[in-house]
Amino acid sequence: MGISVDGTFAIQIVSFLILWVVLRRILFDPMLKVLDERQSRTSGSLEMASHIRSDVESLRAEHADRVAQARDRSMRQLEESRKLTTEEERTVLGAARAQATARLATTRVEISEQVARARATLERDTATLATQLVEKVVGRPVV
After folding, report:
1. Contact in structure between 135 and 141 (CB atoms under 8 Å)
2. Per-position DSSP letters for 21-44, written without gaps between them
3. What distance in Å separates the CA atoms of residue 136 and residue 129, rounded to the nearest whole number?
4. 135 CB contacts (<8 Å, ≥6 apart)?
5. Could you give the CA distance from residue 119 to residue 127 in angstroms, rounded to a whole number?
6. Distance between CA atoms of 108 and 85, rounded to whole angstroms?
7. CA atoms within 13 A on the CB side of 71
8. 142 near 134, Cβ under 8 Å?
9. Which mean pLDDT values do the consecutive 10-residue runs of the chain (143 residues) have?
10. pTM of the predicted model, to two decimals?
């Protein structure tokens, strides 16, 4: 059983080559072109998604930084406000204490003057009352 090569074998090889060329132009090349385009779109989309992810991460980090800066700024402003309020409170309390001390001193002077006048009046009236009491007890005027 040997293999005999005759003219039909050559016809089959030529038919195969013609079919290969036709199929290549009609089917294989367009299909490879579609697959290449699909691959380039997919890799382009993946690359774009990667860029978008990196942009999102950078924006997220920037947002976190801005929030931290705003928080720090508001904390500083709050601390400044507390300091100013404390200083104003000290100033107002100091002024109120000074005013109260001055009023107290003025009131003490007024009370001292009133006490002195009352004592003078009482001393004068005491002498008069004592004389009247002695005159009533004795029954005659005392000189």
Report:
1. yes
2. HHHIIIIIHHHHHHHHHHHHHHHH
3. 10
4. 141, 142
5. 12
6. 34
7. 6
8. yes
9. 75 95 94 92 86 91 94 94 92 91 91 89 84 84 75
10. 0.45
